[in-house]
Amino acid sequence: MEGKELQAYRVGLFRDAARFIKNERIPYFANVVTWKVFDAGHTLDEAMTDFDVMKECVVHFLDNYPCDGLMDTGIRNQFNVTETFGSQGYYYYDKECVGIKDHATCTVDTLMDYIADEDRYVWEKVLPEKYGDEWYQKSKETWKKTFKAYMDYTMFIVKMGSLTGKTYGIPSLAPNNPMSGTISFAVEEMVANLLGIKQMSLAMRRNPEKLDEFIKAWDDKKIQPVIEKIKNGKGPNYKYCFDASVIMLSHNIMSPSQFERFYWPHLEELLKAYEEKDMNIRIFTEGSILRFADYFKDFKKGTLTFHIENDDPYEFREKLPNIAIMGGMTTAMMANATPDECVKYAEQLCNDLGKEGGFILSEGKMVSYRNDAKAENVKAVAEFMRDYRH
Amino acid sequence: MLDSEKLMEAMGDLDEDTVKETLDNVMAEGGSEAQAALAACQKGMDIVGKRFEEGEYFVGDLIYAGELMTDSVEILKDALAGGTGDGQQKTKMLLCTVQADLHDIGKNIVKAMLEANGFDVLDLGIDVAPEKVVEAVKANNIKIVALSGVLTLAIDSMKKTIEALKAAGLDCKVIIGGAPVSEEAMKITGADEWAYSPQKTVDTCRKWAEE
């Protein structure tokens, strides 16, 4: 099999696993991000500013490590556009490291200005902070170069999607049309961009009413249209591995009462809408989610798949037997164990957690840095998963 | 007159208004009870740590508690500097995020918790090279070192730092903390202890300070 036929086969693997349906194979989703840059013999600063180098790294990975899905096709963390215009902003990177500084583009008092008119807010507040007050008066040459960089980036995204799909048969994880593919909640936007971790932590204590007001406005504008679309739609879309992908990070700073107030009501409403339409959702949970296990225990089996990072997969299965698991392989093992030990553990996970579906093998933590995994371990696990049959 | 019990509870409840009002009153009355007020705040931080361990509070609450404790010391500082201290010697210790790692949120939470528990924390910041740690330990006669890191790269840096401390013949205890840290990482790096939670770091450092 190759190309579209292989893509469709792999979509079936993921869908069956998510639905707790036994299939001849358990899929392997490579949660490999920037590690593939080092493995291809490059450094981050080379790959993140040069599309050709990044493409070479992705191709090198797919040529050497058989996988059914890939977290990043090289399109994350590209800095060409912002740097052409004149700043890295709140990102930093060097040969070995890439990161994002805790930053705030709003205060609790300006959150409602942002949601009222996002374009205006970005134009008047965010861009001056990032590029200076005279940002719009940059030279014609700079604007031309920036537009070109932006177009090049857009083309790169299209090309990589086509390359990974047509040549390697890697399916798309979830539909990517605005706000119905990857869905972001108000709390996630506040932690990631609008307030940052520190200001959000303080605001949950000092200004909870202001957060409530913003969260409601965000929900009305961004989440309710998605729910309407789901309710009026045809249900599952079998072109993709999942019908939606949700990323949860901000719960890692919340106490149970804060989660109950700021996050859960909005998340629950969305998840229920998908459940009613018999659609399935992948939730990537950075950190740990088991503190909040009770909230998810009544969902219909096969609706939710949690990609777990720090949670133990066995404890997860015991507490949430209705939810499919993506994950299992720890960075500690991928980085320190032998290939035999890694394969033995992968086999154990498949036998214990995936005999009747409900399990997708993946690395829990994004494999990002040089020391996050040994190449021989990634290869051994990928090849084992390709060949493993029940 | 200061109600230490009420202040301690207010700090434990993260009731900012009551804490600050109480401390303002202490200062308005001349500051003679500043040390007792500080001690009550520190005990309140113990409650915060316990509630974190029990799952009632989480990371955001610890960040908020750190801010509240910093603000509290700021309110009391003139009276504390005026010699109203209890004369107890604080244990000086070193804290940093190791080389090749730039994360500081966890480190700062731990720092606030340690300071609230009476440690004099020398914070070397982030991305700190082993030789800088060795230099600072020597110069300040430090016996307790806490190394923080979030990336897997940090494990290598922790190992190098601990090896450098041992090579320099420095007799100090080292605790490592952060996302990639585990019992296994402790063995790999040669650290004396490891911690996933700030409260465990505080408890371990307290125990070492008392030895």
Structure at a glance:
The complex is a heterodimer of chains A (390) and B (211). With 390 residues, chain A is α/β, with parallel strands linked by helices.
Number of helices of chain A: 17
Structural class of chain B: alpha/beta
> DSSP strand (E) fraction of chain A?
5-15%
Count every helix of chain B, treating DSSP H or I runs of 4 or more residues as helices: 9
CATH class of chain A: Alpha Beta
The H-level CATH homologous superfamily of the largest domain in chain B, spelled out, is: Cobalamin-binding domain
The strand count of chain B comes to 5
Categorize the overall geometry of chain A: globular
If you consult CATH, what is the topology of the largest domain in chain B? Rossmann fold
Regarding quaternary structure, what we see is heterodimer
Structure description:
The complex is a heterodimer of chains A (390) and B (211). With 390 residues, chain A is of the alpha/beta class. Chain A has a single domain, classed as Alpha-Beta Barrel (TIM Barrel). Helices cover 52% and strands 10% of the residues of chain A. Chain A has 17 helices and 10 strands. In chain A, the strands form 2 sheets. Chain A has an 8-stranded parallel beta sheet. The longest helix of chain A is centred in the middle third of the chain and has 28 residues. Chain A is globular, with a radius of gyration of 21 Å. Chain A starts with a helix and ends with a helix. In chain A, 40% of the residues are buried. The model of chain A has no long low-confidence stretch (mean pLDDT 93). Chain B has 211 residues and is an alpha/beta fold. Chain B folds into 2 domains: 78 residues, Orthogonal Bundle (Methyltransferase, Methionine Synthase (B12-binding Domains), Chain A, domain 1), CATH 1.10.1240; 120 residues, Cobalamin-binding domain (Rossmann fold, 3-Layer(aba) Sandwich). Helix content of chain B is 58%, strand content 12%. Chain B has 9 helices and 5 strands. A 5-stranded parallel beta sheet of chain B has the order 2-1-3-4-5, with helices on both faces. The interface between A and B is medium-sized, with 29 and 27 residues.
